[in-house]
Amino acid sequence: MVELGVVYRNIRRADSDIAARLGAFGAATVHEAMGRMGLMKPYMRPVYAGAQASGTAVTVLLHPGDNWMLHVVAEQIRPGDIVVAAVTADCTDGYFGDLLATSFKARGAQGLVIDAGVRDVRVLTAMKFPVWSKAISAKGTVKTTLGSVNIPIVCAGALVTPGDVIVADDDGVVVVPATLAQKTLEAAAAREANEGEKRAKLAAGVLGLDMYNMREPLQRAGLKYID
Amino acid sequence: MVELGVVYRNIRRADSDIAARLGAFGAATVHEAMGRMGLMKPYMRPVYAGAQASGTAVTVLLHPGDNWMLHVVAEQIRPGDIVVAAVTADCTDGYFGDLLATSFKARGAQGLVIDAGVRDVRVLTAMKFPVWSKAISAKGTVKTTLGSVNIPIVCAGALVTPGDVIVADDDGVVVVPATLAQKTLEAAAAREANEGEKRAKLAAGVLGLDMYNMREPLQRAGLKYID
Amino acid sequence: MVELGVVYRNIRRADSDIAARLGAFGAATVHEAMGRMGLMKPYMRPVYAGAQASGTAVTVLLHPGDNWMLHVVAEQIRPGDIVVAAVTADCTDGYFGDLLATSFKARGAQGLVIDAGVRDVRVLTAMKFPVWSKAISAKGTVKTTLGSVNIPIVCAGALVTPGDVIVADDDGVVVVPATLAQKTLEAAAAREANEGEKRAKLAAGVLGLDMYNMREPLQRAGLKYID
Amino acid sequence: MVELGVVYRNIRRADSDIAARLGAFGAATVHEAMGRMGLMKPYMRPVYAGAQASGTAVTVLLHPGDNWMLHVVAEQIRPGDIVVAAVTADCTDGYFGDLLATSFKARGAQGLVIDAGVRDVRVLTAMKFPVWSKAISAKGTVKTTLGSVNIPIVCAGALVTPGDVIVADDDGVVVVPATLAQKTLEAAAAREANEGEKRAKLAAGVLGLDMYNMREPLQRAGLKYID
Amino acid sequence: MVELGVVYRNIRRADSDIAARLGAFGAATVHEAMGRMGLMKPYMRPVYAGAQASGTAVTVLLHPGDNWMLHVVAEQIRPGDIVVAAVTADCTDGYFGDLLATSFKARGAQGLVIDAGVRDVRVLTAMKFPVWSKAISAKGTVKTTLGSVNIPIVCAGALVTPGDVIVADDDGVVVVPATLAQKTLEAAAAREANEGEKRAKLAAGVLGLDMYNMREPLQRAGLKYID
Amino acid sequence: MVELGVVYRNIRRADSDIAARLGAFGAATVHEAMGRMGLMKPYMRPVYAGAQASGTAVTVLLHPGDNWMLHVVAEQIRPGDIVVAAVTADCTDGYFGDLLATSFKARGAQGLVIDAGVRDVRVLTAMKFPVWSKAISAKGTVKTTLGSVNIPIVCAGALVTPGDVIVADDDGVVVVPATLAQKTLEAAAAREANEGEKRAKLAAGVLGLDMYNMREPLQRAGLKYID
């Protein structure tokens, strides 16, 4: 299943327009729309508050302490892509900094999701290049060992196939398989359809208990009120 | 001790004015004034920097991955309350987001303290609805199992009895038992009484060694200076 | 090797000008220039985003839950120093708050690095007194046990000898031995010399693969491209 | 709620016979019988495989790095008790070793549950004195600060009131409130009543799907089999 | 990619003889033979020392706190299989105990690998039913939500496709894709071919430096000996 | 301070007889005798229960995922040594297995202490070659990068200078600087002198409260007994 030393140049990307529209819904809504599947572990955090991105995944498998393949993957980025990077063992090294961010941005990348560390956080923040990582570390890496580009990878507990849609924001990172992107978009839109109305009601003091008709099922489940 | 499926509607709340005045001292001062008891574990963090809240606790016991009781507790909120939520097992799911925050706020809640995850962090920040949690996660929850409202709970290592005062800020979350609230307030006020003077002295270069008369006890303890 | 209850008053500090110039390069560059040694564990984080400091280390060894020696070390601070504090066992208590920060600042300290917790984060942020710690906690400490000042300590996995240069920012905390400070400064300067040019090329879309001549070594290592 | 410096000499212990009989069911069965409440966090582990104990709780609240109160609690132990120890902040120090174990055993203690570290593990194992702890550490402690004995404490996330029944084995530590002990015993007995029969059926190859009549509810829930 | 509520009854299992022979080499050797891929995270530990198993994977995706699907997967077990279980979010609950172990064993299962908790550890040990888990917990689970059986899952960071070979022992758990099983077996055999001879040399005092001809490459890399 | 690519062949070892006698006291007693300094973090655990070792330290600094220098250090082992290994970044890979253990044992090593992972745990246990590590992992390592041998290192939070005495058992790993070895031995012997008598008294039911004359200081500290 895992091949080392290969770069797949042609991948089937999900529709970029769908990716953008999924991004507008945010990670929480998209995750619900997916049936609560496809979320990376919650240790994946944006390097600055308010980071938001969506796009199609180009994937890269790295070795601990070695970021050589990030240069290889840079060439495979097309506008609208998000790079998703996994490592073959736990590592918090700073694989990615301002120079690579400059390069990725120039290639049209929407951001980076990496199950490892990054650095130059101040500059990444100033550049507004969104990155989700599990650590921040000044520790640099070497460039000696081959990994692979655009193979299926496991990143922070989630399977990512090249071309999948990635939706990431303050709430986390969600992977939407390319084949489910359209359907997920529709489900997300349906979920959001009457959110504004609900919010207005709740703001006016209406209780979820009433708005969602929960009183009867709660009573049936045996809830007792004691004065 | 733990009852499931019950909602206590009448709890004895600490005085709301005392709760507000305790909040003005902040978590660190109140914790000192309590004799260094009642602090939740330091993994409880505000979802945005600068969050501050104090109020009387309404408590809720939840099950992993199930936020049904957050709707039940909403009805029990009175202006000036803080909702404190515990879960029967470790869970990082996102139990709480912008809709529930809208509802809680409309009911007069001062904030939420939850030993689990929350989501919609961007909106919570924009709303200035303060939340302390142990995780941020896009993962939503179901509504199928009964917990309880306004029973004593253990939240992040601290026992919380309904009606206790909660003081929370960037430094953490402190629980002040209702019976100790007045006494703690006095102790906090006494601690703060000459803080301004101390700060001015220290800013002028006076050493704590001299201001607190530490040189003699340090010498007695055997401290040696070597040139 | 470890002495308790001693304060060394005379330490050989690295050149303060070199410390300042190393600070301008930032932790990531300095760490590279050191040959990737001397980095504290990545759990050491600034208490506010954008914190930056460099200076010469005055060290202090503390006991769990006891900050007495922070008052002792305050007297040993000279303008341009950074206080580096270790604890004899893991502890997240809040050893340091606004009063000590006022005192340290008045003495000319550039910041604090502590392998434990701190508090009064809101005030530290407002004061712009930079602190790197492993935790934030409202829990205060006692003043009963002697530690030592200006002995070699292990802080967050790194050996710190009094007088070493400390460089800290969002990316972490690096320790530069005094004897290597000049050489590290030169190496850092050399690394940065053509960064601007590189950044411009990458921003223009040139790939690292080409700029760093990686294609040939990648091919030699066996990288295969598959269409 | 939390008093420091007090020792309650008279506590209402649960019936010792019930405690012993609950112990025979083991932690997993008792926890089920309690309605899945009262379990300490799973980081609490026995210091040797196969450790088993049950008894009535005498509680002690300790300070980080200080085991003075373990000597105080020793005097309060009656045959059939289990000592349950909490600390006011996270600490992994080795509070308890072979001498205290000798003393506790002589007093009739059934074991120790401590949310901190212990040492002399080899001797504890040889003595067959069962201990559940969150860490093992050679680091000793001082004897300088007062805590309390026989007050309600929070230990590893569970509230323990003096006199409660503690059931501990390889699977973890369960707290049964004294008032629920009899009822829990009956529920545990009922659960176990036909375990032997079930085990025999399953060993003979009968599926839980059939033995528990799960096929119909699974189908109703929508389970699909695909060949 | 992830389907909920489905059970695939027909999967293509790797050859059972190859699975058994891979097991004889152990996890470390097989992992090397795979090119150091396919290892689960090292937090996966056997519940008793010396546990060893190999077999073909039947997979199951569970929900937090819900073990219903373990009964469903039991029916799909064939002699020589190992059950591999993942959960849709982090959970340490005790999903599996002595009754399910009795059932799995009766169906011919070689063991269980579960990215969650188990219980009845004493009985599992006595039964010699090998289990690898990330936790041990007395906390039981409910039976209310559908997951899936024999779909690809991510377990402890590794992708497992139904029918893959699993090799597990004290050193960890390795996943060998069915398509690579034969080739991996050959590579493992080749690695082991002259292990006995090497071990004898090393036992006789021959250095790896000489046996592996490392002196010359070490010198070339710049290693300096200082007397 | 840290040199890469060097091997110091001549180090000043502590007296081997003292090292052996310190070992007989065990880690807890030696740590007390040192004034509670020099203990490695408690995450360092023996790979099998009952492991015990003491000896003089030969040190090695490794890179993540690279065990080349373990072959280099093997040549520097003299009978009575313990190898102490640190890594320049957090890593759980299995650096050490049965072949290296065979080699180390043949050279006279008393054991290995490594702030990383090891493998072949079953064989290490059968060989009775004691190892303390922070992880167990089947993941092997490469042999490509130079570290150093016999330089001062930081291992699991403790500074280790070549030639120091290491005492390790179930309770953890203690480092005794060579210069303090004799003095520590005397202090340890003094501590143990009347342990037997104390144990006998405690076993007879005498309380520590009386044996150590604690009642008066406890009363002075304000302890209150409540009936």
Essential attributes:
alpha/beta; two-stranded antiparallel sheet; 8 helices; homohexamer; elongated; 227 residues
Describe the secondary-structure layout.
The structure is a homohexamer of 227-residue chains.
Chain A: E1 6-8, H1 16-33, E2 45-46, E3 53-62, H2 68-76, E4 81-87, H3 98-107, E5 111-118, H4 121-127, E6 131-136, E7 148-149, E8 153-155, E9 158-160, E10 165-169, E11 172-176, H5 181-192, H6 195-203, H7 208-211, H8 215-220, E12 224-226
Parallel strand pairs in A: 3-4, 4-5, 5-6
Antiparallel strand pairs in A: 2-6, 3-7, 3-10, 8-9, 10-11
Order of helices and strands of chain A: EHEEHEHEHEEEEEEHHHHE
Question: Strand tally of chain A, please?
Answer: 12
The class by helix and strand makeup of chain A works out as: alpha/beta
N- to C-terminal separation of chain A?
61 Å
Global mean pLDDT of chain A: 96
How helical, in percent, are the residues of chain A?
25-40%
Low-confidence stretches of chain A: none
H/I helix tally of chain A: 8
**Quaternary structure:** homohexamer
Count interface residues per chain for the largest interface.
B-C, 39 and 38 residues
In percent terms, what proportion of residues of chain A is strand?
A: 25-35%
Rg of chain A is: 20 Å
Note the overall shape of chain A.
elongated
Main beta-sheet annotation of chain A: 8 strands, mixed
Molecular structure report:
The structure is a homohexamer of 227-residue chains. With 227 residues, chain A is an alpha/beta fold. Chain A contains eight helices and twelve strands. Chain A has helices at 16-33, 68-76, 98-107, 121-127, 181-192, 195-203, 208-211, 215-220, and strands spanning 6-8, 45-46, 53-62, 81-87, 111-118, 131-136, 148-149, 153-155, 158-160, 165-169, 172-176, 224-226. In chain A, strands 2, 3, 4, 5, 6, 7, 10 and 11 form an eight-stranded mixed beta sheet that branches. A two-stranded antiparallel ribbon of chain A has the order 8-9. In chain A, α2 runs parallel beside α3 (98-107). Chain A is elongated, with a radius of gyration of 20 Å. The model of chain A has no long low-confidence stretch (mean pLDDT 96). Chains B and E meet through loops of B and loops of E.
